[in-house]
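User: hey, got a sec? need TonB C-terminal domain-containing protein folded
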Amino acid sequence: MKKLLIIAVLVSSAFYCKAQEDLAFPFQGGGQIMNRFFKDSLHLSKDIVDKKATGMAVFKFTADINGNIQKIVVYYADDYVLTLPMIDALKKTNKKWIIPNKEKFHDFIIPFSIGYNNPSSGQAEVQRAAYEFYTQRKPIVAHDQIPLNAATLLPTVVVKYDL
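Assistant: Yep! Here you go:
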């Protein structure tokens, strides 16, 4: 009886491991390529740099079977000004998404984190500007329930800029 139980556990764990191998990263080239793509494609506006803007933005987008983006929804953003370069970069990813199980459409959720590298001098001025941005920001927040359906949560894209 013990041997039968051990064999059953081993067989089920082997199937579980095989299922993990079949799960490919949904961006052509993998996660590191996706991060590099967004870091290269995100062109932060002068307004963001001047305001010392930092924050998060979370998007849900739908890709079709060819990897083209059909719809982009902002779930949360610390400020509207942060969303514009991210939306532009997302639009550049057409034909780069791999849809699992040959679905006609698939939803992805991708968080972005934007920040700046600490300057070597003038930190008091930078802190003042960052605090001013923080107190005047107008977050975009979803007030109703958000149906997630079968969405894939992607890793956070972290982008830092120099002042």
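Quick note: The first helix runs from residue 2 to 22. Let me know if you need anything else on TonB C-terminal domain-containing protein.
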